[in-house]
Amino acid sequence: MQKIKSILITMIVALMLAACGGNQAASTPTISVADVQTMAVSTFAAGLTQTAAAMPTNTPNSTLTPANTIVVFNTFSALNANGTPGTAVSNPTTSCLGLVFKNDVTIPDDTNMTPGQQFTKTWLVQNTGSCAWQPGFKWTLVGGNPMGGYTATLTQAINPGAQYQISVPMVAPNTTGESTGTWKMADANGTFFGEAPWVKVMVGNAATTATTTTPSITPTATPSITPTS
């Protein structure tokens, strides 16, 4: 704009000089006021064109492609009967745990007992899994008559391949006839695994008494799990 003002001032000065120069030679061209106005308008328009060309043009912003958005949903727990959130139950895998019954160390099947007789049942079992049984595993009744027996809890690790004796003190029922209880090993979470051996006795059976000798056993104070030698 400063340049345009300078051009206009120059033209005005030239017009004034032309108006005062009537004594000059006739060959000198005369610039009229209209000519000066025309030149001023042309110069101003050219200046605007240059100014517009010099100004930066609006560059459209690039459109950003939205990235994939991961939406996290709330996880709802099952409610208890009173409407409070319940605790999720874990189902641990027992694929590495295994147990096989090997032999009845005491009280083979159909051993005769008198009503109320105390005895200790001992099973020989083997860890056939690929991981050790851990302290806290429980030898528990899973069916039948407990005959006074109660859960035996491991207090030491039992390595894969090892054979162990599990003993549970029991008392023969007061009623006569056959009585059976089935037992099984459970891990620390209460998940059962392996085979389920049983104890089976005959109470007050005269025919069995004549042919079977009842083992003389001193019951232990608590169930036990003992490694074999």
CATH superfamily of the largest domain: Immunoglobulins
Shape: rod-shaped
Q: Tell me the major beta sheet.
A: 6 strands, mixed
CATH level 1 name of the largest domain: Mainly Beta
Strand tally is 10
Task: State the assembly state of the protein chains.
Answer: single chain
CATH architecture annotation of the largest domain: Sandwich
Low-confidence stretches: 22-28, 65-92, 206-221
Spell out the helices and strands N to C: HHEEEEEEEEEHE
Number of domains: 2
Q: What's the total helix number?
A: 3
Overall radius of gyration:
54 Å
Would you kindly provide a written description of the structure presented here, covering whatever features stand out?
It is built from 3 helices and 10 strands, in the order ααβββββββββαβ. With 229 residues, the chain is α+β, with helices and mostly antiparallel strands. The chain has 2 domains: 2-20 and 31-51; 99-227, Immunoglobulins (Immunoglobulin-like, Sandwich), CATH 2.60.40. Strands 2, 4, 5, 7, 8 and 9 form a 6-stranded mixed sheet that branches. The protein has a 4-stranded antiparallel sheet with strand order 1-3-6-10, with no helix packed on it. Helix 1 (2-20) packs antiparallel against helix 2 (33-54). Mean pLDDT is 71; it is low at 22-28, 65-92 and 206-221.
